[in-house]
Specification:
The structure holds two protein chains of two kinds. By secondary structure, chain A is α/β, with parallel strands linked by helices. Chain A has 13 helices and twelve strands. In chain B, strands 1-2 form a two-stranded antiparallel sheet. A two-stranded antiparallel sheet of chain B has the order 3-4. Chain B has a two-stranded antiparallel sheet with strand order 5-6. The chains are: A alpha/beta, B mainly alpha.
């Protein structure tokens, strides 16, 4: 466990002391204790590549003849590949990822997937989000369960944030904890129409309409309360952020810049979740995929440079994944259909940089798709155990051996 | 969790008003909220004088109003001339706000979510508009015909990458969604079925915005789908998919979720009787929707207040119930901001609905949007200002206004304390119309406002 929160708490004014002293501790001291704890807490930033990223054209087995024969039109010429070693290389558009690897800040976990792969976007994404199959009763996501279990530990006022316009990812659904979604910092505030009376009435209404917790009304009630308080805190926290990093112009970059801003504001949030959609490249893949990989690499590397500039690089790790990879053989529309195993990425200054595990074979396939050798829950176990300092068994509902992707 | 506790034979018996369950304004408001976008006070006056079955009968078989059709088409022509698909949402918002056939419109929206296609990829207003007309044409009609039509619809085929489809390497995208999202549901077919179905669609192309069958690219060999084999020309494969027992169950379950309740998941036992009827009635959607809206279950506590309002239900509903009119272009943007961009569903699965509508951003957004609309100078209620409007409804005092708002907008009575707070807001100093607007704004933040 590298975050060492517990050790830190032993040596400073710990959270538990503050709680037990309660109101007798002066406000400024309580705030100081919380702030310094927040500055040590590790942060996980999940980047979801929605649609099924073509892993085979992301980390490319350029010297494998089976790659070229399966992809007569879509294979990336060897001369264009950004070489990792004498067998594998990045798509030329993934320059940001290649730079991170060069700088020892990227781990590539190869061949990630799960047994009996499902090739529906929605079902496979649900499997990734909940770690459960359709036949199970799925009510919470893996991060939601982590948030529920770690509620008491986490000093931050919001233990997770989802940034984006899309609906909130199932991964963040918890029994008790409500994760705020932020579309944009500007939009994330209550507009009172210049009427103070309305604002105070709304606060009063939020406080008066308590209802039983298990119904839709209870869910709405708690989400409203969280929305009102989170918007206030975000508004206070997000003023005057400056960065010398020039983020590229993309939605993902804008979202990650906001994440950097919120991390720097010391909200004590442990998990941030963003998505990059568009990886479902059934047709005209080359141009679309290049744009996406460019956006991914450039946004993540800018983000990590930004948190480094602000002195937070030791406590920020990015996890990037997709619900599945794509079929080894290309289709007739210059695209690829839904597949199975693909690489996942961990990025940050504390990752064990390099390739982890072998590239799946291109000739030993399962229904035309790459076979996985690393269960996605092993990747989750890695960030839970080695990064968030939490027992993965309680979250994942079983024992999954972490992969060696983060410094111990 | 499922609806196992609900007895299907009780559920699907027709609702008959009784002493315990009289046909009153509350029940009529419930019906008109779910079968449309809410009712005005006047519409409730009329509805309680009618038989609920008659009301539903008229809703499921609308006689199109020629004058409104003209109005709608004229507005659409302006929007199409702009060439900007983003503006289509203004047109549809207007139609939903003004239509004399709310159930037709609401069901059209259902199909837009079911056969979800986004202008973000199609990028052409006319193609999207034509698809929307197709949904309206079959909204309360034959689902089988709609499915055949959509499989040749240019917007759909562009969206699902089937503009070109050659026999050498069939593209699976459209075939997969026909089974997974349009007709059967995940788990009711194999990957092999998808690959075989994809072969049936080879040679189906879009050329210059129109469907074309390219026989040179069509795979004429034998295919084997869902246990049946043959060459399967001309969309015969779609009939094989539709013949599956899972198909009517899948559609009925989705209709129940749309018209009845978000949660829990409808049990097979509850779904089956209507799925059988849908089959017996040759896929006639109006029959099943009519059965849903006239059932005992529909008027029970399993249904009333058990749906999270979509942005359309929330925004169009608030305006319609108060005879509101406003800037349609802004309305279209508002709906998009709240997560329901018309013509821009998030993906091929459409909008998940239910709790997925709700998060901190959308809740703040809902309050901000309602607050903005009621204060917007362009917004009119019954053609005038809010104070004049409530005077016309004989709601003069602050508490009478609050009671009226609750009756028209809310499906579930809020706590007395909430009403007290709103009365205070109205009675605070200031222009009366502004105070009522402030009360509606405050009302929009309570949990009860988000459900129906």
């Amino acid at each position: 466990m590298r975050s060492n929160r517990r050790d830190f708490l032993k040596t400073t004014l710990g959270t538990s002391a503050v709680v037990s002293l309660g109101a007798t501790v002066p406000g400024f001291l309580r705030h100081a204790a919380a702030a310094s704890t927040n500055e040590k807490e590790t942060v996980l930033v999940v980047v979801q590549m929605s649609g099924g990223n073509d892993g085979l054209n992301t980390v490319i087995p350029y010297s494998d003849p089976a790659y070229r024969s399966s992809r007569p039109k879509l294979a990336i010429p060897e001369s264009d590949v950004l070489k990792i070693d004498d067998a594998l290389g990045f798509h030329p558009a993934a320059r940001g990822l290649a730079d991170l690897l060069e700088d020892d800040r990227l781990a590539i976990v190869q061949g990630v997937g799960y047994e009996n792969p499902n090739r529906s976007h929605f079902e496979s994404m649900d499997i990734w989000h909940t770690c459960q199959r359709k036949t199970d009763t799925r009510t919470t996501g893996w991060l939601g369960r982590y948030l529920d279990l770690s509620q008491a530990e986490n000093s931050g006022a919001s233990s997770a944030f989802h940034l984006g316009h899309e609906k909130q990812p199932f991964a963040l659904t918890a029994e008790d904890v409500r994760v705020p979604s932020i579309d944009s910092l500007d939009g994330f505030r209550l507009n009172d129409g210049g009427d103070e009376n309305v604002r105070s009435t709304i606060s009063k209404l939020a406080a008066t309409t308590a209802k039983e917790s298990d119904s839709i009304l209870g869910f709405l009630q708690s989400t409203t309360t969280v929305a009102l308080s989170a918007s206030k805190r975000v508004e206070e926290a997000s003023r005057d952020y400056k960065t010398p990093v020039n983020y590229p112009e993309s939605d993902l970059a804008t979202k990650l810049k906001t994440v950097a801003q919120l991390i720097d504001a010391g909200l004590g949030t442990r998990v941030y979740y963003v998505t990059l959609d568009g990886f479902d490249t059934h047709s005209q893949q080359p141009a679309a995929h290049a744009v996406l990989l460019g956006q991914l690499g450039d946004a993540v590397s800018s983000f990590l440079n930004d948190v480094k500039h602000h002195g937070h690089d030791d406590r920020v790790t990015v996890l990037a994944f997709s619900e599945f990879g794509r079929r080894v053989k290309e289709n007739a529309s210059d695209g690829t259909d839904h597949g199975a195993a693909a690489p996942a990425f961990l990025a940050g200054s504390k990752v064990r940089a390099g390739l982890i595990g072998d590239h799946p074979s291109l000739t030993d396939l399962e229904d035309g798709d790459l076979k996985f050798h690393t269960d996605f829950r092993q990747v989750y176990a890695t960030v839970l155990e080695s990064w968030l300092g939490w027992s993965s068994k309680s979250v994942l509902g079983g024992i999954h051996k972490p992969v060696d992707a983060l410094e111990a | 969790m499922t609806t196992a506790a609900i007895d299907p034979s009780w559920a699907w018996k027709p609702f008959r008003p009784s002493k315990q369950q009289p046909w009153n304004r509350a029940r009529a408001a419930h019906l008109l909220r779910r079968a449309g976008f809410g009712a005005t006070s006047q519409e409730l006056d009329a509805a309680v004088e009618q038989d609920p079955d008659e009301i539903v009968g008229a809703l499921v078989s609308p006689n199109l109003d020629a004058k409104f059709e003209q109005e709608s088409e004229a507005f659409a022509a302006t929007i199409l001339a702009s060439g900007n698909p983003k503006q289509l949402s203004a047109w549809w918002s207007y139609v939903m706000l003004r239509t004399p056939h709310p159930l037709l419109e609401k069901t059209t929206l259902f199909w837009h979510g079911h056969f979800a296609t986004s202008a973000a990829k199609v990028e052409d207003s006319t193609t999207m508009y034509n698809q929307n007309r197709l949904f309206r044409q079959f909204a309360l009609g034959d689902f089988g015909k709609l499915t055949h039509a959509i499989s040749r619809d240019p917007a759909m085929l562009i969206y699902l990458d089937s503009v070109t489809n050659r026999k050498a390497h069939p593209n699976e995208n459209f075939a997969r969604e026909v089974m997974e999202l349009f007709c059967l549901g995940e788990g009711n077919y194999s990957e092999k079925d998808i690959q075989e179905l994809a072969r049936c669609f080879t040679g189906w192309e879009i050329r210059r915005g129109k469907f074309r069958f390219n026989r040179f690219q069509h795979d004429t060999e034998t295919k084997s789908i869902l246990g049946r084999s043959g060459e399967m020309p001309e969309g015969e494969s779609i009939d094989i998919v539709l013949d599956q027992p899972a198909a009517p169950q899948f559609i009925v379950r989705k209709l129940l979720r749309y018209f009845m309740f978000d949660e829990p998941f409808a049990s097979d036992e509850l779904v089956e009787p209507l799925a059988n009827e849908l089959r017996e009635h040759q896929w006639d959607i109006s029959h099943v929707v009519g059965r849903i809206l006239t059932s005992q279950l529909f008027y029970s506590e399993h249904v009333i207040g058990r749906k999270v309002r979509s942005p359309v239900d929330l925004v169009i509903g608030m305006l319609r119930t108060l005879e509101g009119s406003t800037n349609s272009y802004q309305l279209g943007d508002d709906l998009n901001q709240l997560g329901q961009g018309l013509f821009y569903p998030p993906n091929v699965k459409g909008w998940d609905g239910g709790r997925a509508w709700i998060n901190s951003s959308t809740l703040l957004g809902r309050a901000n949007v309602i607050g903005r609309i009621v204060r917007d100078e362009k917004t009119r209620f019954g053609g005038g200002k809010l104070d004049e409007y409530f005077t016309r409804l004989d709601a003069e005092s602050a508490s009478a206004i609050v009671d009226k708002l609750v009756e028209l907008i809310l499906a579930v009575e809020p706590a007395q304390a909430v009403k007290g707070q709103l009365v205070e807001v109205i009675n605070a100093e200031g222009d009366r119309s502004d105070r009522i607007a402030a009360a509606i704004h405050a009302l929009s933040t309570i949990p009860e406002f988000q459900i129906m």
